[in-house]
């Protein structure tokens, strides 16, 4: 069914890049984006000046929906960013409903590292909308499963959220 969806879908972008800028070297995403463009791949890289807002822009939501492939760059504090989690949730919806393909990169972390939210963000989650937090957990579990990390974000690991 996913292949039927893909063949019928008209994509505006080949790739959507999902990342937490504060965790990356300044040039990593810029270089990746440039190399994709240089090889003829139409990639959308969000202009992320600040990740402090809870709402992601309509432009980013539309770009996710209009991308054939999403690449998530998992980094040390990726799961401590509301924006990253909102984008990942939308990506997982598109994987399920639009046949979008999902790929991932581990940036300066190992798959065995603990990538759960930490610090003040973890404390802030306790006061957050429980339904939204559950969607984030579900998206992280699905992404981890697709990345071959079965049970990485299992109920036990995320129960303290």
Could you explain how this protein is built, in words?
One of its GO terms (biological process) is signal transduction. The chain is an alpha/beta fold and 161 residues long. The protein has a single domain (2-115), classed as Rossmann fold (3-Layer(aba) Sandwich). The chain has seven helices and four strands.
TL;DR?
The protein is built from seven helices and four strands; from the N terminus they run H-E-H-E-H-E-H-E-H-H-H.
CATH architecture descriptor text = 3-Layer(aba) Sandwich
CATH H-tier superfamily = Toll/interleukin-1 receptor homology (TIR) domain
Report how far the terminal alpha carbons are from each other: 35 Å
Q: Per the principal axes of the C-alpha atoms, what is the gross shape? A: globular
The biggest beta sheet reads: 4 strands, parallel
Element pattern in H and E? HEHEHEHEHHH
Helical content class = 40-55%
CATH classification, class level: Alpha Beta
Structural class: alpha/beta
Average per-residue pLDDT, rounded, comes to 80
What is the gyration radius calculated from CA atoms? 15 Å
CATH topology term: Rossmann fold
Total of DSSP H or I helical runs spanning 4+ residues: 7
Poorly predicted parts: none
Keywords: NAD
InterPro entries: TIR_dom (IPR000157), Toll_tir_struct_dom_sf (IPR035897)
Protein name: TIR domain-containing protein
Pfam families: TIR (PF01582)
């Amino acid at each position: 069914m996913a292949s039927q969806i893909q063949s019928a879908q008209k994509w505006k972008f080949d790739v959507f890049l999902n990342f937490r800028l504060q965790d990356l070297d300044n040039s990593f995403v810029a270089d990746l984006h440039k190399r994709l463009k240089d090889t003829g791949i139409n990639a959308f890289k969000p202009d992320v000046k600040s990740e402090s807002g809870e709402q992601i822009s309509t432009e980013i939501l539309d770009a996710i929906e209009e991308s054939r492939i999403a690449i998530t760059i998992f980094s040390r504090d990726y799961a401590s960013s509301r924006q990253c989690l909102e984008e990942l949730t939308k990506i997982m919806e598109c994987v399920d409903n639009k046949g979008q393909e999902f790929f991932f990169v581990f940036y300066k972390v190992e798959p065995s590292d603990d990538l759960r939210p930490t610090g003040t963000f973890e404390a802030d989650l306790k006061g957050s909308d429980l339904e939204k937090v559950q969607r984030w957990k579900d998206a992280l579990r699905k992404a981890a499963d697709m990345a071959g990390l079965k049970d990485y974000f299992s109920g036990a690991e995320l129960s303290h959220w």
